[in-house]
Amino acid sequence: MSDIDWNALAEKAANQTDAEFKNQLAGLTSLKTSEIDTFISESNISNANALAVLKEINNATLSNNQKANSIANIQNGVGFLVKLVSKVV
After folding, report:
1. What are all long-range contacts of 11-19, with beta carbons under 8 Å and residues at least 24 apart?
2. At what angle do helices 64-72 and 77-88 cross, to 10 degrees?
3. Distance separating alpha carbons of residues 79 and 20, to the nearest angstrom
4. Where are the chain's structural domains?
5. What are 1-56's pLDDT values in tens digits?
6. Measuring CA to CA, which residue among 73, 81, 31, 75 is closest to residue 49?
7. Model pTM score
8. Which of 3, 24, 27, 47 has its CA 20 to 30 A from that of 40?
9. What residues have CB less than 8 Å from 55, skipping those under 6 apart?
10. Tell me, what's the pLDDT at 89?
11. Distances (CA, A) of 26 to 21, 33, 34, 61, 70
């Protein structure tokens, strides 16, 4: 995942329709589009903020505490992260 340009992806997400965004996110993960739709709806997060959360998770230079603080500052970021993790575990 380190080869992904998160800034470009976030900018593109701001301009994409929800369907395009969900398809792209599904392509980056092992999740189905319907699963992405469900947890984005449940967490009430924007496309750009969802990508901001993923960018923070992927940031290897930050400690876990720094990542948690950064995600807490993203609107609906924690709810999105909880929903995302619930799909993994």
Report:
1. 13/47, 13/48, 13/50, 13/51, 14/47, 14/48, 16/47, 18/47
2. 120
3. 22
4. 6-88
5. 567 787 787 777 766 677 777 887 787 777 888 888 887 888 898 888 888 898 89
6. 75
7. 0.70
8. 3
9. 6, 7, 10
10. 67
11. 8, 6, 9, 25, 24
Q: Is the pLDDT of residue 88 over 80?
A: no
What whole-number distance in Å separates Cα of residue 65 and Cα of residue 46? 23
pLDDT at 26: 81
Three-state SS for the chain is: CCCCCHHHHHHHHHHCCHHHHHHHHHHHCCCCHHHHHHHHHHHCCCHHHHHHHHHHHHCCCCCHHHHHHHHHCCCCHHHHHHHHHHHHC
Tokens of 6: 């998160």
Please give the C-alpha separations between residue 32 and each of 26, 38, 48, 85, in angstroms, as whole numbers.
6, 10, 19, 15
